[in-house]
Every structure is written in structure tokens, then in C-alpha cells.
Specification:
Strand content: under 5%
Oligomer: single chain
Helix content: 55-70%
Distance between the termini: 39 Å
Strand order of the largest sheet: 1-2
Low-confidence stretches: none
Structural class: mainly alpha
Radius of gyration: 16 Å
Number of strands: 2
Order of helices and strands: HHHHHEEH
Shape: globular
Length: 167
């Protein structure tokens, strides 16, 4: 896989873990308002989203007739001034989480992603195949992978906003 994209996945995940590992149970699970998530819920959302991305990528890789589409602009996913409603299948539950549980979930979803990516023999398939993303529509698989770290960066900002209000 493209080393820049792989590096971004690694660096963004490291940054996320740095932001959450020192938080107490109460800090992780504090919900500031009824229309917001706790840090733990944001992390659970990231876990659910990464798993759904893995399923989308894996499904497209198995399709014989997955269409080749042109890349789209996806950088606006990082713009926190634009509210994006999460699809129902990635909305976190309201249950509280211990940090070790969050870390295990994030490790599980990343392992799933890396297992799929490590089976790819030729990276060109990530540009040649596509899948329908709930927000952007049909995207080349390489952009699905880019969206993982861009989406995570968006939520790291959200976590920092939450932390600034609870710490």
C-alpha cells in the first residue's frame, strides 16, 4: 500500500491513543449535553466506522465487476464546522466504557483493516475498484482507506473539544 497513506493511518491512530489513554473512567464517559457524545462514544463510533469500512472494502474487492470511478474531493470530511450525521449503523451506544475496552476495540478494527490490506497483492486494485460510501457515493477503494484516517482526525478534534470542557 502507498506508504504515505499507511503512515497517515499509523500516525493518526497514535495521536488518537495519545489523546485518550490518560483519561479517567469519568472523563472518558462524560456526556456534556444530550446532543453530544462522550470521548468513549466517539471512540466506539470510530471502531464501528472502521469495521464498516473494512466490510465495504472487502466486499468490493470480492466483486468481479466493481466499477472504476474517478476520485472525488473528500478532504471536507475534516471540516468540523460542517455537521455530518452518522449513519445509524455507526452511532455508538450510551453504555460507559473502560479504557482497556476502548483500546481493545480500536486494536480489533485496525487489525481487521490491516488483514484485508495485507492480502492485496497489487495496490492498483485499490484504484480500479470502488464501493458506495454512505456520504460520498461511489469512491475508489484507496479513498475509502484515506477516509479512515481523515475521519479519525475529525474525531480527534472532537475529542479535544470535549477534553477542553471536562478537564
Amino acid at each position: 500500500m502507498n506508504q504515505i497513506i499507511f503512515g497517515n493511518l499509523v500516525e493518526t491512530r497514535k495521536q488518537l491513543l495519545d489523546e485518550i489513554t490518560t483519561l479517567s473512567f469519568e472523563e472518558l464517559n462524560t456526556v456534556l449535553r444530550s446532543d453530544t457524545w462522550s470521548v468513549a462514544q466517539v471512540c466506539y463510533h470510530l471502531y464501528l466506522a472502521e469495521k464498516s469500512f473494512v466490510h465495504g472494502i472487502n466486499y468490493a474487492l470480492k466483486q468481479k465487476d466493481s466499477p472504476k470511478v474517478e476520485p472525488k474531493s473528500i478532504d471536507n470530511i475534516s471540516d468540523r464546522t460542517k455537521k455530518i450525521d452518522a449513519p445509524s449503523f455507526v452511532i455508538p451506544s450510551e453504555e460507559p466504557f473502560e479504557i482497556h475496552h476502548i483500546l481493545n476495540m480500536l486494536k480489533e478494527s485496525r487489525t481487521m483493516l490491516l488483514n484485508v490490506l495485507n492480502k492485496i497483492e497489487n495496490d492498483s486494485i485499490l484504484r480500479d475498484k470502488s464501493a458506495k460510501h454512505p456520504l460520498f457515493g461511489e469512491l475508489p477503494l484507496i479513498q475509502w482507506i484515506e477516509l479512515i484516517y481523515l475521519h479519525e482526525q475529525r474525531h480527534i478534534e472532537q475529542i479535544n473539544e470535549i477534553k477542553s470542557q471536562i478537564l
